Amino acid sequence: MYKCGPARLAEAELIAILSALPDPVTAPTLEAIKTTWATWTAGLTRYPTLPAEPVAARMRLVLDNLAGHLTPAFVLWLFEHGIIPLYTPLGGSWLNMAESIQRIIERRALEGQHPESPAESIEWLEAATRGWNRQPTPFIWGGKRAARRSRSRQRRYALGGSGACTYRPIRRRKTALDKWLQASQVTH
Question: What does the domain layout of the chain look like in residue ranges?
Answer without folding.
Answer: 5-87, 143-183
